[in-house]
Amino acid sequence: MKRLLPATAHPRHDWLAEARASLDLSSQLLLGQVSLMLMPVMDLLTLAPLGAPALAAAGLLNSITALFLLFCFGVMQAMAPLAGAALGSPSGRALARQILGHGLTLSTAMGLLGALAMQAFLRALPALGQDPAVTQLASAYGPALSLALLPAAWLCAWRVGYPLLGQARPLARILLACALLHGLANVLLVHGWPPREGLGIQGLGWSYLLSYGLAAALLAWHDRKAAVPSTPMPTPTPTPTPTPPDDATAARRWILRLLSIGLPIGAVMAIEYTLFAGSTLLMGRHGSLALAAHAVCLQWVTLSFIIPLAMSNTVLTRLSLAIGKEDPDEIHRVVVVACTIAAAFHAVMGACCLLMPAPMAQWMLPAASPDRAAMLDLAVPMLQLAGLLQTFNGLSVVLAAVLRACRDTRAPLLQVFAGYWLAGLGSAWLLAQTQGPLGIWQGMCLGFGLTFVVLLRRVRRRLLHLTDLLPQPESAHAQSR
Predict the structure, then answer these.
(1) Residue 110: inside a domain
(2) What pLDDT digit, counting tens, does each position of 173-183 carry?
(3) Over 50: is that where the pLDDT of 204 sits?
(4) What is the number of domains present in the chain?
(5) Which residues, if any, are the signal sequence (predicted)?
(6) H or E element in which residue 55 lies
(7) Are 150 and 108 in contact (CB under 8 A)?
(8) In the chain, is it the N or the C terminus that has fewer CB atoms within a 10 Å radius of its CB?
């Protein structure tokens, strides 16, 4: 049984080189992630003059879109371990590009299904008890937004595949251009320009279609320009067949392979997203002041989550490549460096939440609000717990990325569900009965802490037993122990 070498067996320059490479890749991925997160912020600024119903309609549909894109991005992460292992072979780059091509095919199907699901949601919206004004505006915004889900799904595939191919920098630049175009298109399409009148909230949907579509077109052009001559794709079967299957059969098998690894990842991301949505619903039962304070704390959690999300994408990429090289020493370095950087960031963020919660809450609360003092009283203890919650959450995200690179996704899905929903949301509901609004945050901390411990133990076991990680994807089974 192969074990990782201790840290002292590696030259110091190898560790420093790994730290520099991880930070460089994380900075590029961070730029792309921030660019995408700026787009809904631009929506708020653009729609504010149209009134509260427009803001509510955009927020409702944007939350549905965010859930879909998180799920799609999670499924696409299955490409990382497969392409990383393929890159360890002599013709690895061509094989990795073919895996990316299968990911794009799968994302096309997911984008079309997402568009159909958005249309079904719009038709069902009047029966969900929403304000008629919000329903009417959502019906105007939704059709173009549903069309934008197809190029958005393609972007999810490229966001996973391009860093593996060493193309993280052009990816970040294109995503930044996408965000800047979205801001400009928002103003022109929503409010218009002399002498043309704007389209109102309907223009926001066309802005998403334009910006996502242009980004997808640029990435397709760049990918075609950088492509290398392709080689036949091997079929991912554990034993050779007497006659090789045709291309369509091989493609179906690879897509099924992506689904078998990726669907649990997408489900984990959706579970995490819906946990925060569930906590918000619980908090709403304690009044508007508690809900406003909760929103302030969640905003800080969301902002700080950008860093561990970039780190998780980094460790997924670099660890997949290290496993493809079948290098235990590099596997060890990648995981230790990523976890060290993530722990250092969360130590700083946790200290800020613990030592200066009042100033952090004040920065998010309007100075002219008549209930500012009451909201501060509620937000300060919540924010102190938010620092602990975000530490558990961020480190869990990095550990989950380690398991994804190891093609271990099914068992962690059940563990995350038990930690986030059964322990986290369940204890939040129970503690809210006795501790009030603060009990909801205490319960979420319990759920995230339990999940962190379970994932840490599983990662440790995976790294101590490397024999299951090193076979090439065409001879390995995508299964969890």
Answers:
(1) yes
(2) 999 999 999 88
(3) yes
(4) 2
(5) none
(6) helix 52-76
(7) yes
(8) N
